[in-house]
Amino acid sequence: MKTILFLFCVSCFALNAQIPPGAVSATANTVYYAGGQCAFYDAAGRELLTVDAAEAVWSCSPAKAAWALVTPRNGGYYEFPNYTANPSRVSTHEMLRPFWQGDTITKEAVVLTGIGSESRLLYRPRKIISVTNYNGTRLFGEGVDYTMSGNVITQKSAGPSQTYVAKQGQRGNGTPNGLINVAATSWTYVTYVRERDGWDPSAAWSAKGALLPNTLRKLQQGKPLTVQALGMSLTAGLNVSGFAGDAKNFPPTDPYMRSYVDLFCDHLQNQFKTDVTLHNSSCGGKTIAWADRYCRQLVSPNNPDLVIIDMGMNDIWGQTSGSAFRASLESTIQKIKSDCPDAEFILISNMLPDVNSPGAPKDGEAWIYEFLRQMNALEGPAVAVFDMTTTSKALYDRKGASCFTSNSLHPNDYMARWYAQGLVHLVTGMPTSVDGDDHTSASTELNVFPNPVSDGSVCIDAAPLSLQADTPLTAQIYSVSGQLVRHVTAVMVNSQVHISTQGLAQGAYHVVVQSDDRSGTAGFVVMP
């Protein structure tokens, strides 16, 4: 009888719950600003979380939030969605082809700031396919706009740096934040066929699907997967080209790339042909102590299968010791596990801050390495560590940090691709390909003629692939922005493949010709 009475009372409460007077609509898992104490409620009016005025100034709404009540009410409540409404023009398929596999490097970023400025490629190019501006709408010519010597590209005309912009970063209240922000329009992108020299920047990465069996099993069985990100501004996507939550700095711009957790989830959904739902509870300026304090409200109600904890870049100012970082991280994991016992975790050890650029503490590298050490101590069943720290050191040594960072603390579009590629490799242990494509083997450079193309078709010499005459082939044509613009079943005649270019706009393109176990790449330019 007591149990029945208790259930009756609970049911009555649920039926009688009301939206608090003065509450405004709120969106779950969204960055917000409130000018006073803020209480959150679900759709039925049940209270989920109350945060004090200091925390409410800049934070993230809890899972299942539908209403927010600010005290005093004149403090206001403002939400800052991470991304612009403009759809991303980034092809996950092409942008997540591993930089360390195959021979064709797609859209590698270099930074050119004026005539005579230089930047390095990761590898010595054997053949340049295209050099373009940030969104692929302008093609630069060798000998006119740039020159190449080894792996060094030198700016020759004013064109490549016309959209380069760097300026003092600002906080939400308009005061300087100490950072120098570089706009997403600033990078020049090079697509090329590389010389193989044995250098592998991903050597620090391991496939760790064995530590995440529930996640991998769901993917392999095509079952829906729920991913929760708990992090900071890097995780939210600050400074990638599609980010819209930073009105005081640069507006979103073409190609509207999203954060590495979005790229990662998009890829899993495409590769495994299943539904992947992402909840991103990330907010700029937060530390691991914040994650520990609010994780149960932000994460647990979503019942995630996989939780990505991305913390540390705001802990490098010496206020969080290594032992304190580990204690808060371990507590965060345990709290979520107590609510969601089947949840598995990826702990991201972030890229190194650029300590030679304004806004990063000089001992920032040492702190990131210390946090990596503490994360590694927690790795085990259901907990895998993604080491972007060691890889970023290798990348910076090879090219310089400015090719990867929008400021001293945040990745640009190019570095976001490295993060996403590494996360996919960690979970699946597979090359980042979709639709059955296999990029584990090296791609063979193929010749195209005529080039430039002006008569509506190209002929690709497929003889280097050494295929039987009746081998089925596919050909995929990508724009220099990475978009798949054409996918066709190819027919090989006398070792040649003919592909129509009718309808393709003027500009540079990258084509991948594939059989089941071999692939070749080539570049061509369409002229009027």
Rg on CA atoms, Å: 25 Å
Quick one: how many beta strands? Answer: 29
Strands of the widest sheet, in order across it, are 17-16-18-19-20
Count of DSSP-assigned helices: 11
CATH class membership of the largest domain: Alpha Beta
Instruction: Indicate the percent of residues in helices.
Output: 10-25%
Shape: globular
The poorly predicted ranges are: 1-15, 431-441
CATH superfamily annotation of the largest domain: SGNH hydrolase
Based on helices, strands and strand pairing, what is the structural class?
alpha+beta
CATH topology of the largest domain: Rossmann fold
Estimated share of beta-strand residues: 25-35%
Structure report:
The chain is globular. By secondary structure, it is of the alpha+beta class. It contains 11 helices and 29 strands. Mean pLDDT is 89; it is low at 1-15 and 431-441. The chain has helices at residues 2-16, 53-56, 92-95, 213-220, 233-236, 260-272, 288-298, 322-339, 364-378, 388-399, 413-428; strands at 24-25, 31-34, 37-41, 47-51, 59-60, 67-71, 77-79, 104-111, 118-120, 125-132, 146-149, 152-155, 166-170, 176-182, 187-194, 225-231, 276-282, 306-310, 344-349, 383-387, 444-445, 447-449, 457-461, 473-479, 484-490, 492-493, 496-500, 507-514, 519-526. The protein has 4 domains: 14-79, no CATH class; 104-194, no CATH class; 209-428, SGNH hydrolase (Rossmann fold, 3-Layer(aba) Sandwich); 444-526, Sandwich (Immunoglobulin-like). The longest helix is centred in the middle third of the chain and has 18 residues, at 322-339. The strands form 8 sheets. It has a 5-stranded parallel β-sheet, sandwiched between helices. A 5-stranded mixed β-sheet has the order 21-29-28-24-25, with no helix packed on it.
